[in-house]
Structures are given as C-alpha cells and as structure tokens.
Write a structure and sequence with these properties.
- The chain has 354 residues and is an alpha/beta fold.
- It has a domain of 140 residues: Rossmann fold (3-Layer(aba) Sandwich).
- It is built from nine helices and 17 strands.
- Strands 16-13-12-11-7-10-9-8-17 form a nine-stranded mixed sheet. Strands 3-2-1-4-5-6 form a six-stranded parallel sheet, sandwiched between helices. It has a two-stranded antiparallel sheet with strand order 14-15.
- Helix 4 runs parallel beside helix 5, helix 5 packs antiparallel against helix 9 and helix 7 packs across helix 9.
- The longest helix is centred in the C-terminal third of the chain and has 20 residues.
C-alpha cells in the first residue's frame, strides 16, 4: 500500500501562513484556541453551518466566515486546511483542498470507510500535497518518551500491548461508532509501539445507548513478531480513562495519556513473594516514575503540520497511517459482525510503521 508521491509541493517558507478551519465543534474550537498561540500563522477562514457558532469564531479570530466549507476552500487563499468537520464529510473536503494544492490536516479518523480513505491518500500522492492525520496521541509527551525508550532498547521483546480508551457517550458523535471514532487512535498507537501492522484481528462489539452504532469494542490484534494487542474502547464508562500498557521481557511500561504519567516496572524475581493479608502471594518489581515534560499534544501536532507546509517533507502521521487505522478499524467491525477472526496479511499488513 506504499504510494510514490509526486514532488509537486512547493514549501511556503517563513512567511505568515494562511490556514482555514472546517468545523467548529469541540475539536474545531480547540484548534482555534491553539492556533491563536502559535507564531507566524493566521487563521484566515473558518466554516460551520451553525450561524451563531460561526459568528462567534469570526468575532474572536477576525477570520473570514463561511457557512459552506467547500465555498471556503474555493474562495479563500489558503496554504493549509484543518478538517474538523464530521467524519462523513472528510472525503469531499479533503479532495477539494488537494485539488487546489492546499495541505490538509484531517482530524482522525481520516475517513468513514477504507475506500474514502484510499481516495484521499491517492489524491494527495498524485498531486504531491501533504496529508497529515490528527492522531494527536502521537504528539503526547509521554508517548514520545515511551517511543524513545523503546528505541533505546528498554524492552528487547514486546510481548503484549493493552489500551483502554473509555468515557461517557459524546452526544455529538452520530455518524460513526466508537470503533471508527475512538479506536482508530489505539490501533495507530499499538501498531506504532509494535513497529508493524497486525496480520489478524478479532473483536466483539455491543450497542447499548447509541442510536445507530456500536458504543463498546473489545478487540485483539496479532502482530507478525508474535506480539498481541488488546483494545478496550467504549462510550459507556462514567469517567474518562486513557491508558496504555506495554509488557516485554525486561518489564512493563504504564502510560496515562491524560496526566502524561509514564512508569516502568522492572520484572520481579520470583524468589521472595510478598503476602497480601498474610496469605495471597504477589511479586513486586521496582517501579520508576519516568520524567516527562508536560505539553499540549495538539500544539505539537499543529506545529508539525505548519513545519511540513513551510519546509516540505513527510508528515509524522501521514495519510498512509490514517488509512491503516481505518483499515484495521473496519476489519475489527467485520470480525464482530461475522464472529470470526479477520486476516489482514493479504492487505500488506506487515508493512513497517513510520
């Protein structure tokens, strides 16, 4: 699935960049807030179909306002576009921007279906237009430090990776279920930690409170190296949880995305168990809280996007990564529907993760 990119992108250099923003929901408003803190960039245009929301953003930023995002893409002179509109609209907006040689940052998931995601990636490759996908957890300082330590060899072998992403149901999400909306974060992170794509997946889903889609997913991913990934993703938990565990030969990393806390527990010896309550044996390894410099992941993501617009090069999280996240999420839904594992090896699943 690797695609060659035509070298047609013209880096914009150090001049002030003009950005557009499609969608002013909760994520779109976060983009407005963070962009206002970054130097040498101007939010030139915003779009949203809700008139009072659009009016408020225009008043706050001085940007040109559009009720229709396609009109904004056609009429505003933009260097880059952030697409934070509903998932089902991503393909039309992305293709319109790429056609006008506007670099895009598409909030995850890249698209609602594999076919739509493929169309975006192919269009970007053919025109040489940068396509970045908003898998913002890749820019979490704790995740960055975890990657550095894995590269440094703290775990010679990764045995298992478990991810929990849970919280209350967000009423704003109507067009897709929890697998495409949330689990795309986690299949991307698990593949990144493993350094490879899964070759087989299995899933169980449930629909409890969402009107049309699943709101609970338990998933298993099998990687070529033998590592196993586990997903627990739902919109049913009354409190927000964002956690990652990586178990390997030398010990275990535990990461909290929200607090940006990262710990490493060294594998314990089995010679001296400690008794809980005088009768239940347990084994405790040495636990180290690892230093992480706290920062807002969205700011890092936007800074990386602006750097690609200015200097060229491949986005840290590009369209291919976004396509794979949608591909794996779709395979998980297929598995849940058929009550059987789904093989991904025929889809070039062993391609290395960037």
């Amino acid at each position: 699935m690797t695609r060659s990119r035509a070298a047609t992108w013209r880096p914009r250099g150090d001049r002030e960049l003009r950005l557009g923003l499609a969608g002013l929901g909760s994520m779109g408003r976060n983009h407005v807030r963070v962009l206002g803190t970054l130097p040498n960039v101007r939010l030139a245009a915003v779009s949203d179909p809700v008139a009072d929301v659009l009016e408020a953003a225009v008043g706050e930023t001085g940007a040109q306002g559009f009720a229709e995002p396609l009109a904004m893409i056609a009429e505003a002179e933009l260097d880059g576009l952030v697409i934070a509109a509903p998932t089902t609209s991503h393909v039309s907006l992305a293709l319109a921007a790429i056609e006008r040689d506007i670099a895009i940052l598409v909030e995850k998931p890249l698209a609602a279906t594999v076919d739509e995601a493929t169309r975006i990636v192919d269009a970007g490759s053919e025109r040489g237009v940068p396509v970045q996908v908003g898998h913002v957890e890749r820019f979490n300082p704790a995740v960055i430090e975890l990657g550095r330590l894995l590269d440094a060899g703290w775990l010679s072998t990764v045995y298992a990776i478990a991810s929990r992403r849970a919280g209350p149901f967000p009423a704003r999400i109507r067009d897709v279920g929890v697998t495409v909306d949330l689990a795309t974060h986690d299949v991307d992170i698990l593949s990144w930690v493993a350094g490879e794509r899964p070759v087989r997946v299995y899933a169980e889903t449930a629909q409890r409170i969402h009107a049309t889609h699943e709101d609970l997913l338990f998933g298993l991913l099998h990687f070529p190296s033998g590592a196993t990934g586990m997903l627990d993703v739902n919109w049913l938990t009354p409190d927000k949880r964002r956690q990652l565990t990586v178990v390997g030969e030398e010990g275990m990393f535990e990461l909290d995305y929200l607090t940006q806390r990262l710990t490493f527990t060294k594998t314990a010896g089995l010679e001296r168990p400690r008794l809980i309550g005088g009768y239940a044996p347990t084994f405790e390894g040495d636990v180290a809280v690892l230093p992480v410099s706290s920062a807002e992941p969205l700011a890092g993501e936007l800074e990386a996007f602006l750097a690609v617009i200015r200097d060229g090069g491949r986005p840290l999280v590009d369209g291919e990564d976004g396509l794979w996240a949608v591909t794996i999420a779709s395979a998980l839904l297929e598995s849940a529907a058929t009550h059987s594992p789904v093989e991904l090896s025929s889809r070039a699943a062993t391609q290395a993760v960037s």
